[in-house]
Amino acid sequence: MKPRYKTSALKDRKSFRESLVSWFTTHGKDYPWRRTIDPYEILISEVMLQQTQISTVLGKGYYTRFLTSFPDARTLAAANDADLLKAWEGLGYYRRARMLRDTARAVIAEHGGVFPDDLENLLKLPGIGRYTAGALRAFAFGLPAVLVDGNVARVISRIMDFSDPADETAGLKLLWSWAEELACGDHPREYHAALMELGQTVCRPGVPDCLICPVARFCRSRAPEKLPVKARKTAVTAIEEHALWARDKLGRVLLHHETGKRRTGLWKLPVREVGETAGLQVLLDEIYSITRYRVTLRVHRVPASRSFKHLPGDTWIDPENISSLAMAAPFRRVVERLLRDS
Length: 342
Ligand code: SF4
What we know:
Endonuclease III, domain 1; Nucleoside Triphosphate Pyrophosphohydrolase; 3-stranded antiparallel beta sheet; alpha+beta; binds iron/sulfur cluster
C-alpha cells in the first residue's frame, strides 16, 4: 500500500530535494558517467542512453569501447564513417552516432574544442535538444538545469497526480514547468541524477515500489500504476525482410553496402523483394524490432549454380574481413550464425 500524501512537493521544494539527494547519496548507482564531469563523456553517455538501456550500454561495453576509440571531441570530429559506425555497432539508431560527430565538429569549429555551458549556446549545437542541454549543464558543469526524460516524466506525473496525457504538447509543457519549479536549488548534479535514479529503480513503470520511496510523503498519486497517462498508443506493424545468403567458389560472402537513408554506411546481407526469392531454401528467420516494426528477417540460400541480379553496393567479402565491417545487429547475428554453421 502507498504511504499517505502529507505535503506538496512544490510548496516544500527544499525538503523534497533534500529527501531525494540524501536517498541518492546512499542508494545512487555508480555508473562511469557519474564519475566524470567531462562534458564530452557525459554527452556520449546521454546519447547512448536515449534509446538503449543502461544494462546494454554497460554490460556489452559500448560506452567504454566508444570512448577508447574516440576519447575526445577532436578524435570524434575526425572520425570517418566506417570507424564511427563500427564503434556504434550494436547500439542501433545509427543517426545518433553521426549526430554526435556533428556536435563534436561544431564544438571544435565554433568553441575551440571547449563545450559551452550556457543554455543558449548548447542549444545551438547540432543534435542538442533541451533535455541534453540540461543534462550537460547539470552533470558536467554542476549548474542549475531542467531536464525531463521518460523516468523523470513518470515520477513528476505521479508526484503531481497528473492524469492528463503526459505525451501531448500541453502535458509536456506542464511537466517541464513543474520540473523547473522543483529543480531550482543547490546540488543540481545530485538532484537530477537522484530523480532519474528514482524513476529507474523505485518509481518504475507499472507498479512502483512506494513503500521504499524517499519522497512518498510528497506524492499525491492514488493509483500510481496508472500514471503517466499516454494519449498515443504505438501500433506495432509486422513486416518481412528477405535476404540472400550467397557464397562464391572462393567461399566469399555476398554483402551489401547500404547507401539508403536508414542504415547508410552499414553492411548487411543483400535484401530482395519476396518474389525474387521464390524457390530458394529458407535457412533461418531472425526476428527483431525497430521503431514501430516487428521485422522477420528471412534468409534464403542461393545455390552457387543459380545466377541472380547483383545490385550496386553488392560486394563479395572474405569471411575473415566481415567482423571488421560495421553491420546492424540483426544481420551480424545472422551472418555469424551462418558462418558458424557452414
Ligand atoms: S514510488 Fe513513485 S508513485 Fe510511489 S510514492 Fe514514490 S514517487 Fe509516488
